Amino acid sequence: MSEGDGATSTHLRRIACVLGAPPTARTLAGGDRHEFEVWQRWAARPDVEMHVIACWTGAQLAENLGYHLPLMLTESRASGIGALRLGYIARCLRALRRLPEVGHLDAVYAGSPFFYDVLPAVAAKIQGRTKRIIVPFYHVTPPPTNRTGNPLANLLAWIEQRVMLRLIARYADVVLVAYAGARDDLIRNGIAPTAIVTTGMGARAGLAAKAPPQFDAICIGRLTPAKGIIDLLDAWAILRRAVPAARLALVGGEMPGFDVAREIQRHSLAPAVQIFIGPSDDEVRELMSASRTFITASKEEGYGLAVGEALAAGLPCITFDVPAFAAVFPLGRHTARGTSAEALAQAIREVLTDEALYRRLHDEACSWRYSSWDEVADELWCECVEA
Question: Which run of H or E residues covers position 318?
Fold first, then answer.
């Protein structure tokens, strides 16, 4: 039967995904969530043959979170990254060696815009072994002088991203962004507008039942200065002067080179701030149900999936004035008036002590409409593969 007779195409799509980024098996970023949700749904399609070429920690992260992916491991055990991040080079080389084993492909989907995921995809394109490359690029980092954290690490990250932008501009067929502002940033950095596809971000259903509140706020994400954790602890120390009993849950994964427990001790916040390292999705949902609000002190985001998850759970959100948040989450969110810890502390205090404000934000969060991951995966399939 021909397509004109209404038949569905039975052409088998052969796709390889490269997953070399996660530094630990207990740290989930928003980009990881997006790719795991999409890859799992694509892999389940009857017209797809998929291989996920993954480092050991990436494979463990997917399995720990309950994702069933067709994994092809590049290593038999966890490999360290090291202070100079040289371990990422080794991961890249191992992925380069394994990718030819899957033969010719319709697409290679890089798990991130970093070199350890992009270079294997570019190599396959140059060698004529794939028809197209798909690369997510949710956030263009600012110059290192405009970022918090280690100055040398920020400089190296900025240089690497500029090199990757050039490679992606030349070789990528599809570049994924999550909101219009990120699209504009990429165009200014040489990415062709016709290559850019705006993807939705899904969210899971809201919490089934609200537990008695144990925490005034919860922060979910990588526990690192780049995500504003030091600013958050500074703000919480200021908040405690006005609200002495305020309690905060820090939920996520520790990153190499940063001791969040030591920072909590330095701020004298040990009784007020509790850390939950690498919990399961169900445990995260339980912690969210026991929290009154969600907070993030991040000042750079390409979307902010944790904010979306919090809104889906009905939690008022407190953030800095981040362009991505303003574009994607206009409701249910209270914004600090300024970029200082003092401004963030004031915003937290306002939500916790003003019942009318809290109720309005809660109602807005509960009314927020979000996509399912099935919808996101289907839309991307049409845009990235069928197109």
Answer: strand 317-319
CB atoms under 10 Å from CB of 7, counted, come to 9
Concatenated DSSP letters of 211-240: PPP-EEEEEEEEESGGGTHHHHHHHHHHHH
Tokens of 368: 């927020």
Task: State residue 5's pLDDT score.
Answer: 41
- The partner residues of 51 in beta bridges, in order of sequence, read 16
Rounded CA separation 82/88 (Å): 9
Return d(Cα 240, Cα 217) in angstroms, integer.
13
**Which residue, among 315, 310, 307, 328, has the nearest Cα to 361 in the 3D structure?**
315
**Gap between the Cα atoms of 335 and 230, Å rounded:** 18
Q: How far does Cα 356 stand from its chain's mean position?
A: 32
**Which residues does 215 contact at the CB level (< 8 Å), separation at least 6?**
247, 248, 249, 274, 287, 290, 291, 292
Q: Are 177 and 138 in contact (CB under 8 A)?
A: yes
Write down the pTM of the prediction.
0.88
pLDDT band at 83 (very low <50, low <70, confident <90, very high): low
215-367 is classed CATH 3.60.15.10: no
For 176-197, how does the pLDDT look when each residue is reduced to its tens digit (9 = 90+)? Answer: 999 888 899 999 999 999 999 9
CATH code reported for the domain at 3-202+372-386: 3.40.50.2000
Query: d(Cα 36, Cα 226) in Å, to the nearest integer?
Result: 23
- Looking up tokens 């009993």 gives 245
Do 78 and 56 form a contact (C-beta atoms < 8 A)? yes
SS3 category, 5: helix
User: What b/e sequence results for 86-124 when a residue is b if at least 16 CB atoms lie within 10 Å of its CB, and e otherwise?
Assistant: ebbebbbebbbebbeebeebbbbbbbbbbbbbbbbbbbb
Q: Give CATH 3.40.50.2000 domain extents, the chain.
A: 3-202+372-386, 215-367
Residue 203 to residue 324: CA distance in whole angstroms: 17
List, for residues 331-347, the tens digit of each pLDDT value: 999 999 999 999 999 99
Across 75-89, 136-150, 366-380, the highest mean pLDDT is recorded for 366-380
Contact 307, 329 (CB under 8 A): yes
